[in-house]
Amino acid sequence: MAIEPKPFSLDTVLNYRKRLEDLAKNRFLEAKRVHLIIQDKFISEKNSLHSTITTCATLQTEGIEITKLILFEEKITAGQKNLAAIKKTIQEKKQLVEKEKQNLLQRSRDHQVMKRLKHDQNISWKQYLDKKEAAMLDEVAIMRHGKSPIDPK
Fold this sequence. Notes:
By secondary structure, the protein is mostly helical. It contains two helices and no strands. It has a domain at 11-113: Helix Hairpins (Orthogonal Bundle). The protein has helices at 11-62, 66-145. Helix 1 (11-62) runs antiparallel to helix 2 (66-145). It is rod-shaped and about 120 Å long. The model has no long low-confidence stretch (mean pLDDT 88).
């Protein structure tokens, strides 16, 4: 009775899936890091704009030259445009983070499926070998005792 060769090993595929998962994880973490940096920049810019507006209001109550007032107004307008641009960038980065998160989840699921498939394949192979071994032991026992398992003598 010849034993069949073991089926294709899933180790290579499993390693590949693990690398894809690790790559997706790194991309997700990088996207999240960039998103947080831009959020910090937004908060900083917002605080700076708030400070400029407060300073302008204070100087207006105290009396300010018209040229300085125009400069403050231009600075406030530029700050508001900059805030709007940063806000738009935050939304884009947030979408990128979500996309990378979904990619990571998919890669993780793929890796888990391959692990499960490898585990199931190993169990099936062990059961096959156990069955073959039991058949060989039965055959040896029959040959040794000279009786067939069906023969009641």
